């Protein structure tokens, strides 16, 4: 795993917030067919604040690390604040990613947006 920062390695070997939330208020799933990475994100939201967030990622080390980091960045934030987190912020929080792996941070950002979209649909009484 040459070319990865210590933070990327730490989040890969010791990912935070791994797992599922049984009674999640929001579930988002995104994938990248080109590289085969799949991220699924679960959120527990109370009074518009993300009180818990978990993820399951099937993919490379950078995909696991970006999933882990994005959960750290959005936990405790409002839904609107979480929507503002960008893939660049995720990569910067990990002290950078190799250019060939930047798509992993895009996937992390998309997983957050997908889960929040699911939450908002449920709030509006829409079915998936």
Automatic annotation (TrEMBL):
NCBIfam families hit by this protein: NifU_clost
Record organism: Candidatus Dojkabacteria bacterium HGW-Dojkabacteria-1
Gene expressing this chain: nifU
SUPFAM superfamilies, sorted: SufE/NifU (SSF82649)
Coiled-coil portions: none
CDD domains referenced in this protein's UniProt entry, alphabetically: IscU_like
Name listed for the protein in its UniProt record: Fe-S cluster assembly scaffold protein NifU
Domain NIF system FeS cluster assembly NifU N-terminal: 4-124
InterPro entries from the UniProt entry: NIF_FeS_clus_asmbl_NifU-like, NIF_FeS_clus_asmbl_NifU_N
GO molecular function: iron ion binding; iron-sulfur cluster binding
GO BP annotations, alphabetical order: iron-sulfur cluster assembly
């Amino acid at each position: 795993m040459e070319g990865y920062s210590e933070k990327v390695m730490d989040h890969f070997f010791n990912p935070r917030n791994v797992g599922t939330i049984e009674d999640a208020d929001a579930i988002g799933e995104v994938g990248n067919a080109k590289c085969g990475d799949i991220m699924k994100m679960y959120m527990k939201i109370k009074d518009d604040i993300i009180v818990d967030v978990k993820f399951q990622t099937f993919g490379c080390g950078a995909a696991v690390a970006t999933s882990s980091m994005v959960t750290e960045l959005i936990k405790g934030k409002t839904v609107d604040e979480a929507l503002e987190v960008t893939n660049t912020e995720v990569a910067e929080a990990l002290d950078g990613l190799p250019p060939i792996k930047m798509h992993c941070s895009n996937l992390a950002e998309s997983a957050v947006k997908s889960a929040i979209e699911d939450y908002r649909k449920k709030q509006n009484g829409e079915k998936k």
